[in-house]
């Protein structure tokens, strides 16, 4: 059954992700139309756009969870032909509202990230435990390994979800609204962490972010979705303009240049 | 989180038995053996415990050519070998099958209220059994009674109908399947009631079956159940790790390389096979499949790799003890075992919840 699939890209560093002509919807309603995107290896693309513009659907389609037309290529290899397991070895995903199972320790939860790297029936090997321990230490979760996941704080849980995704040793990390449930300080901590991991491991990051200022500060490229299409794509200060915010968000805002990227200031 | 009971827990919120799953398994195994021994010792005709053990050892070692002298003889031996032992073994198999199926259903639907009867297995079996009790001209096909056969087929047909309806209505999502199961179960229950009301002469027999009974258990029941239960248990035990992955959600399981729909289908089919086999020989025994997995999770945490095998042991022990109570309380009359599992199980479960809430 594995014979027909193209070999997965070798697992070193971040991969280039290309989306060509991606069209997706729910029933007869089209949500995304001919979306075209490219993310360079080791880059961070933030998908922004007003509510209902299809940000999450785009992410879920790129990961193959949502039926769609068009192509998604990882280092030139179309993901549609890949075995699910091979895809799981290069693409990791942290959802907006992760399901946190009851009665499971944080260590066991993070270990789930090793699933695509061994047969489904097999117990975690020593190398899996080592990778999990390393990831948890890097994310400051070492002392929480034996604690039930549901007893951690919101910020710690978000880090545990990240740790699980990183234990997959992916080449591309997909984050759906990683800061949605966090206050400003914790949101910055998580994004700082993602940025550090991205630079250390040369990871490619694709995230949705509804907070435009955070998107402008952290991502190196933005794609603005509106009405199911990418209406602007480029460096943050090219995409985040007062005119674009007015046209696509119906918002009154000034865009201020901060030290590390544009910041959006809503005005009355 | 604060700990009120001094010394009860080492670290705040740590799962108490995390480091000694072996001990929990040994304890559950011992409980099962003790429950089975109690099951064969106690009854209307009390059997001498020592001689019972000797007889059982003698039978176990006979294939090796070893004979152990000093066992039971005559009526005592017949009571042990033809009445008590098959009954206890059927109780173990049925309890184990319902409990592991319940754990699997709860895992696959990520719903703590799920039980093996959720998708129409119970109502399908009920309709099948009622139909043959009311209309079948024969009592048995070969050595196998028509009621177990009809119940087995009815349970599988019920679940099959729910799965077909669910997939036709929107794929392998748990909510769609649940609603399809509820619709099928309601329809089959209504049909069962209709047949039952048209045949009031057989009402007593039908009710007796619906409430569950192990009184007529024979060795042939064990032969009937064991292959299906065996296959189902192997599949379910092997699915533990995959179910742990599914516990984090369909999308995330997908992102980890697991096919949620396919896994759900395999686990539901295996669990339904085990349930159908159990229901065929025992009728509808409620509560075991719902409660035993929760008891097990209190003991060992939520990891399915431990919950599934432990549910087998605890479910077996639980049903043997429930059957013991059913035989003893109103002796020489018997209570339907489904009444006992609920009557004993519900307060026990409530107590467990209460203790769990207090120690938090």
From TrEMBL, chain A:
GO terms for molecular function: ATP binding; ATP hydrolysis activity. Residues 17-252 form the ABC transporter domain. The keyword Transit peptide does not apply. Pfam families: ABC_tran. Keywords: ATP-binding, Nucleotide-binding, Transport. It comes from the Bacteria. InterPro entries: AAA+_ATPase (IPR003593), ABC_transporter-like_ATP-bd (IPR003439), ABC_transporter-like_CS (IPR017871), P-loop_NTPase (IPR027417). PANTHER family: ABC TRANSPORTER ATP-BINDING PROTEIN (PTHR42794:SF2), HEMIN IMPORT ATP-BINDING PROTEIN HMUV (PTHR42794). This is Iron complex transport system ATP-binding protein. It comes from Blastococcus tunisiensis.
Automatic annotation (TrEMBL), chain B:
GO terms for molecular function: transmembrane transporter activity. The chain crosses the membrane at residues 23-44, 50-72, 84-105, 117-135, 147-169, 175-195, 222-243, 263-296, 308-329, 335-355. InterPro entries: ABC_BtuC-like (IPR037294), ABC_transptr_permease_BtuC (IPR000522). Keywords: Cell membrane, Membrane, Transmembrane, Transmembrane helix, Transport. It is a multi-pass membrane protein. SUPFAM superfamilies: ABC transporter involved in vitamin B12 uptake, BtuC (SSF81345). One of its GO terms (cellular component) is plasma membrane. It is found in: Cell membrane. One of its GO terms (biological process) is siderophore-iron import into cell. Pfam families: FecCD. Its main location: membrane. Belongs to the binding-protein-dependent transport system permease family. FecCD subfamily. PANTHER family: ABC TRANSPORTER PERMEASE PROTEIN MJ0876-RELATED, FERRIC ENTEROBACTIN TRANSPORT SYSTEM PERMEASE PROTEIN. This is Iron complex transport system permease protein. It comes from Blastococcus tunisiensis. The lineage of its organism: Bacteria, Bacillati, Actinomycetota, Actinomycetes, Geodermatophilales.
């Amino acid at each position: 059954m594995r014979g027909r699939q193209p070999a997965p890209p070798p697992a070193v560093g971040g991969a280039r992700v290309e989306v060509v002509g991606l069209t997706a919807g729910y029933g007869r309603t089209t949500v995304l139309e001919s979306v075209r995107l490219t993310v360079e290896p080791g880059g961070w693309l933030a998908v922004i756009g007003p509510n209902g513009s299809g940000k999450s659907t785009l992410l879920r389609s790129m990961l193959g969870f949502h039926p769609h037309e068009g192509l998604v290529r990882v280092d030139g290899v179309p993901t549609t032909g890949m075995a699910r397991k091979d895809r799981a070895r290069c693409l990791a995903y942290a959802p907006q509202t992760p399901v946190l199972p009851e009665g499971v320790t944080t260590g066991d939860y993070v270990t789930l990230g090793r699933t695509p790297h061994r047969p489904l029936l097999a117990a975690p090997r020593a190398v899996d435990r080592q990778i999990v321990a390393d990831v948890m230490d890097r994310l400051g979760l070492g002392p929480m390994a034996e604690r039930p996941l549901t007893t951690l704080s919101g910020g710690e849980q978000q880090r545990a979800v990240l740790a699980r995704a990183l234990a997959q040793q992916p080449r591309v990390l997909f984050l759906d609204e990683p800061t949605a449930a966090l206050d400003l300080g914790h949101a910055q901590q998580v994004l700082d962490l993602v940025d550090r991991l991205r630079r250390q491991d040369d990871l490619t990051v694709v995230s949705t972010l509804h907070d435009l200022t955070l998107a402008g500060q952290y991502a190196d490229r933005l794609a603005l979705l509106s009405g199911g299409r990418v209406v602007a794509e480029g460096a943050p200060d090219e995409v985040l303009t007062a005119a674009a915010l007015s046209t696509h968000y119906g918002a009154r805002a000034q865009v201020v240049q901060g030290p590390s990227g544009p910041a959006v200031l809503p005005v009355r | 989180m604060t700990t009120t009971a001094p010394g009860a827990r080492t670290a705040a919120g740590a799962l108490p038995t995390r480091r000694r799953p072996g001990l929990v398994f040994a304890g559950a195994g011992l409980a099962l053996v003790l429950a089975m021994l109690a099951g064969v010792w106690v009854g209307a005709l009390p059997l001498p415990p020592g001689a019972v053990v000797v007889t059982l050892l003698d039978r176990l070692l006979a294939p090796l050519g070893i004979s152990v002298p000093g066992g039971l003889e005559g009526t005592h031996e017949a009571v042990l070998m033809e009445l008590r032992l098959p009954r206890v073994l059927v109780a173990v198999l049925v309890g184990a099958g319902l409990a592991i199926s319940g754990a699997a259903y709860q895992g696959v639907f990520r719903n703590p209220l799920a039980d093996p009867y959720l998708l129409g297995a119970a109502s399908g079996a009920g309709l099948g059994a009622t139909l043959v009790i009311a209309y079948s001209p024969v009592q048995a096909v070969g050595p196998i009674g028509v009621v177990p056969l009809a119940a087995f087929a009815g349970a599988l047909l019920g679940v099959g109908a729910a799965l077909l309806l669910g997939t036709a209505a929107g794929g392998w999502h748990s909510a769609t399947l649940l609603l399809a199961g509820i619709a099928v179960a309601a329809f089959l229950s209504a049909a069962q009631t209709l047949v039952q009301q048209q045949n009031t002469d057989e009402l007593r027999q039908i009710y007796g079956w619906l409430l569950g009974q192990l009184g007529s258990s024979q060795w042939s029941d064990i032969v009937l159940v064991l292959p299906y239960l065996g296959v189902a248990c192997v599949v379910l035990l092997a699915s533990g790790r995959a179910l742990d992955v599914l516990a984090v959600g369909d999308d995330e399981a997908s992102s980890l390389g697991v096919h949620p729909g396919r896994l759900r289908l395999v686990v539901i089919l295996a669990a339904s096979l085990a349930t159908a086999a159990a229901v065929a020989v025992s009728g509808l025994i409620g509560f075991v499949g719902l409660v035993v997995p929760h008891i097990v999770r209190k003991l060992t945490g939520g990891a399915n790799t431990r919950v599934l095998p432990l549910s087998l042991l605890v479910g077996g022990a639980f049903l043997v003890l429930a059957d013991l109570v059913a035989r003893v309380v109103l002796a020489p009359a018997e209570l339907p075992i489904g009444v006992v599992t609920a009557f004993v199980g519900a307060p026990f479960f409530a107590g467990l919840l209460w203790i769990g809430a207090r120690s938090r």
